[in-house]
Design a protein that fits this description.
Blueprint: E1 2-6, H1 13-26, E2 32-37, E3 48-52, H2 53-56, E4 65-68, H3 81-104, E5 111-117, E6 128-129, H4 139-151, E7 161-166, E8 168-170, H5 175-185, E9 190-192, E10 198-199, E11 201-203, H6 204-219, H7 235-240, E12 256-261, E13 267-268, H8 269-280, E14 286-288, H9 290-297, H10 302-305, E15 309-310, H11 313-317, H12 327-332
Parallel strand pairs: 1-2, 1-4, 2-3, 4-5, 5-7, 6-15, 7-12, 8-11, 9-14
Antiparallel strand pairs: 10-13
Length: about 325
């Protein structure tokens, strides 16, 4: 199997590559990973191939799966007009290059897995949200929706699409947790605002596991099969869950689906703060009030003080079992 990854060297792409190579090599199965890059001299593991976007525009190679993860970090800088344009362009341009490749290649991929985020749903407080839920319009929704709609154009060429809407990914190597470790270790970590906002998170191990699961389900024709394994899932979430139709509308008969890549047990910011402090054996007395966060981050403060309760219902119904369904496990059981 040949897999092409945009954003392969990033926080998620590198972990995905390492894990799927390990699994397939241990099963003595032929697997090749290629990272799309703008810099051909970029450092990379020996068992990873590199390809520039210019080379993609000319290659005759075929890929079974394309994993589209390229995009600047949404929380890395204040949302100025210029930054908003950068966030959009960093997602749209790589996706356009992939679509151009799909359009001209004679050997079409069997699946395009394209990144998105739970920001698609907009700010909806503690309302449980699954793949059937609607959205509230804001910048995060606009950003995710434009990225998703472009990726769905792959179905025009007969390529099935799986959109993965990712929550806050937990691992000390990077992401939000990587940024929080230093202040929390110094004993100056604390909750944001009133701490009641819901945080929909997923461990990096489960993000990788879920992505591999989705790919294998689609390639074997088992997508959408299975029953819910609730495990340690919050019973309130189970009671509110009904069978979800995670298909997305397309202009043809080529299928497209969406998955929420979040853990089944979202937590409040207060709980997250206390759990992280306990894991690090550090106090968590400090609080950053909402008004100060808005002064510091402007519109981007919505990511910190407005919650989303996004549930991975389609993933559970497909039969995926979470390895780290609780935040405590995600912190203590690092891969």
């Amino acid at each position: 199997m040949n897999i092409l990854i945009s954003g392969g060297s990033g926080f998620l792409g590198s972990a995905f590559s390492k894990e799927i190579l390990k699994r397939y090599q241990s099963a003595d199965t032929d697997l090749h990973i290629t990272w799309l890059t703008r810099d051909s001299s970029q450092a990379h593991p020996n068992d990873i191939q590199m390809m520039t976007y210019d080379e993609l525009a000319q290659t005759d190679l075929g890929f079974d799966v394309i994993l589209n993860l390229a995009g600047a970090g949404i929380a890395d800088a204040r949302w100025s007009d210029e930054r908003k344009e950068q966030l959009l362009a960093s997602r749209i341009k790589p996706t356009e290059s992939i679509l151009e490749f799909i359009a001209r290649t004679s050997t079409k991929p069997k699946l395009l897995v394209s990144g998105s985020a739970i920001g698609w749903y907009g700010t909806q407080g503690d309302k449980p949200l699954n793949e059937n839920s609607g959205f509230e319009p804001d910048f995060a929704h606009q950003l995710c929706d434009e990225w998703e709609q472009l990726a769905l154009e792959a179905t025009n060429y007969g390529v099935p699409v799986a959109i993965v809407r990712t929550g806050v990914v937990i691992h000390p190597d990077g992401g939000m947790l990587g940024k929080l470790l230093t202040p929390f270790k110094m004993g100056v970590g604390g909750q944001l605002g009133d701490g009641k906002q819901i945080m929909s998170w997923i461990s990096r191990e489960d993000w990788v596991g879920a992505a591999i699961f989705i790919i294998e389900q689609h390639l074997t024709g088992k997508a959408g099969s299975g029953t819910i394994d609730t495990g340690e899932m919050d019973t309130e979430n189970v009671e509110r869950a009904a069978t979800v139709d995670n298909t997305l509308p397309t202009a043809n008969e080529t299928p497209a689906v969406v998955y929420n890549l979040t853990a089944p047990n979202p937590v409040t910011n207060h709980t997250f703060t206390k759990t992280l402090g306990a894991w690090l054996h550090r106090p968590t007395f400090f609080t950053l009030p909402a008004f100060l966060l808005k002064l510091m981050f402007g519109e981007m403060a919505t990511l910190l003080i407005d919650g989303q309760k996004v549930l991975p219902q389609a993933l559970l119904e497909s039969g995926y079992t979470f390895r780290q369904p609780t935040l405590k496990q995600a912190l203590e059981e690092q891969d």
